[in-house]
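Chapter summary example: a protein plus PBG.
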Amino acid sequence: MSTLTHRPRRLRRRAGVRALVREARLAPENLILPLFACPGEGVRREVSSMPGVFNLSVDWVARESAAAFEAGVPAVILFGLPESKDETATGAYAERGIVQEAIRAVRREVPDMVVIADTCLCEYTSHGHCGVIRGGEVLNDESLELLARTAVSQAEAGADIVAPSAMMDGQVGAIREALDEAGLEHVAIMSYAVKYASAFYGPFREAADSAPAFGDRRAYQMDAANAREAMREAELDVMEGADFLMVKPAVAYLDILRQVRDRFDLPLAAYHVSGEYAMIKAAARLGWMDEKRAMLETLTSIKRAGADVILTYYAVEAARELRGR
Ligand code: PBG
C-alpha cells in the first residue's frame, strides 16, 4: 500500500494533463518582432552576431512584416539605419526618414499589423549616444525636444505606438505633451521605463550600427545592481502618462519583471534582447543545446515572471512553433 499522500507527478503523467494545468501561457498574440530598416531596395543582409536577423530595405520590412503577421505575430517594432548620421540626429525626425518610410510601408502592406516605433537617437547620431552631447556629456533636457520631435514624426507616419528607449528623464512626459499638441492623442507610449546598461545589447549595436563612439551609456541607463530604483523609474513613467511599461533586458532581470508586475497595473512588456537571443543561437550552433526548447523555455520564463508582451527576435519562430506550424 502507498504511503505517499501527495504525488505532484499525477499531474505530469500525460501531455493532456500537463496542458490542462499549465500556468503561464505563451501565445503568438503577445509577441512583438523587432525589424531593422536600412536604405536601398532588395536589401536583406544578415547581422553576423544575430543569425536569422537582417538589415532590411523598406520593401523587405514590409514583406517580413507580412510573413510575421501570417505566422500570427500581431506587432513589429521598427529600428532604422539612416543614410547618414550627424550630431543632432536629423535622420531620426526627418519626414522621409528611414523609420518613417518603413512605418508607411508596413501600414500600407499589412494594414492590421500593430506598428511600434523605437524612439531614440543613438542610431542617428554620429557619436552613437542616445541624446545631444556637449562637453562629453549627454544633455537631458535638450535631448527631450529631439525625442519628442522624433515621436511626433513617427506617429505622423502612422505608428500606433512609440517606444522611447533613450532613458532621458522626463521623456515620456515630453513625448505625451508633444503628441497631444500635434493632435496625436490616440498614439500610445510603450516606455522602456526600466532599462539597464547591459552587455547583452552587444549584437544589437552591430545590427543598428549604434555603438557609442566614446564612453558607454552608464550615465543614463540603469545600474544592474538596482531594483528599488527600477520601481522609481516605473512610477515616474506611470505619472508621466505611459501606456505600457517595459523592462529590459528580460532574462537577466526576471526578478525586476516580477516586482514591476506586482506593483503596477499597466500592461508590461519585456525585451528579450539581442545578446540573450545570440547566446541561444550560438550554443545551438555548437550543438550544445536544443534551440527550439531553449527558445520556448526562455520565453515562457519571461511570461511566468509577469510579462504580458515580449519583444523577441524569435517572435516568428516561436509563433510557428506554438501554432504547430
Ligand atoms: C536604443 C535601443 C537599444 C536597444 C533597443 N533600443 C540599444 C542600446 O540602448 O544600446 C537594444 C535591443 C537589443 O539589444 O536587442 N537605445
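Key point: DSSP finds eleven helices and twelve strands in the chain.
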